[in-house]
Specification:
Elements lengths: L1 E3 L5 H11 L7 E3 L23 E8 L2 E2 L4 H15 L6 E11 L18 E6 L7 E7 L10 E5 L6 E5 L2 E5 L7 E10 L1
Antiparallel strand pairs: 1-9, 2-3, 3-4, 3-5, 5-11, 6-9, 6-11, 7-8, 7-10
């Protein structure tokens, strides 16, 4: 796992925040962070799991760019991160923005992996917020995990980027103190 708070400047961070909160940026309601069938081995539900509504803005799905914001986030955020941290990218599988509004219960969304094929995940936190991302010690290996153990929590801070093995189980939490949490999520192949 690579965590980097110093790969783009404050002006760029502010520009990106203003882009995602602009009234012309469309958001679509998603009632789950993962598909409704969470019985597969790439999802784990626990007594601390609760799905909360989130909003998505798709940027790229497989080989198709579906938002004019994709090029901005790719060139202003993703490229600087992977170049600084010496990471290669041969293909972007999916890119999206996730906006999770405030929720008052102390739970996390369904632990999951984004893809069931080998990949890396890049997360970029667009705003300062509570609502950590929880990373678990367990990795997807095509067998059903009955229990997960917490490895680390990463707090959303504007300008922070994280890259991790896409087979590592992770789960977002909704903010309780701030109004919302916005994250750029890019799944890619090295």
């Amino acid at each position: 796992m690579i965590i980097d708070n110093d790969f783009i400047n404050k002006d760029t961070q502010d520009l990106l925040f203003n882009l995602v909160t602009h009234r012309e940026t469309s958001w679509f309601v998603n009632y789950r962070s993962v598909p409704p069938d969470t019985s597969g081995p790439e999802f784990v539900t626990t007594d601390k799991t609760k799905e909360v509504v989130q909003f998505n803005h798709l940027l790229r799905v497989e080989d198709k760019i579906v938002s004019k914001l994709y090029d901005v986030f790719y060139s202003a955020v993703f490229l600087p991160f992977i170049e600084k941290n010496n990471i290669s990218c041969s293909k972007v599988l999916r890119a999206k923005l996730n906006l999770v509004p405030s929720f008052q219960e102390d739970v996390y969304q369904t632990p999951h992996v984004d893809q069931n094929t080998s990949h890396k995940v890049f997360l970029y936190y667009i705003n300062d917020s509570d609502g950590d991302t929880i990373f678990f010690n367990e990795f997807f290996d095509n067998t059903k995990k009955l229990e997960l153990t917490e490895m680390i929590k990463v707090s959303p801070e504007m300008g922070k980027g994280v890259v991790f093995d896409g087979f590592q189980f992770h789960a977002p939490t909704a903010p309780k103190k701030t109004s919302f949490r916005v994250v750029l999520n890019i799944d890619f192949i090295e």
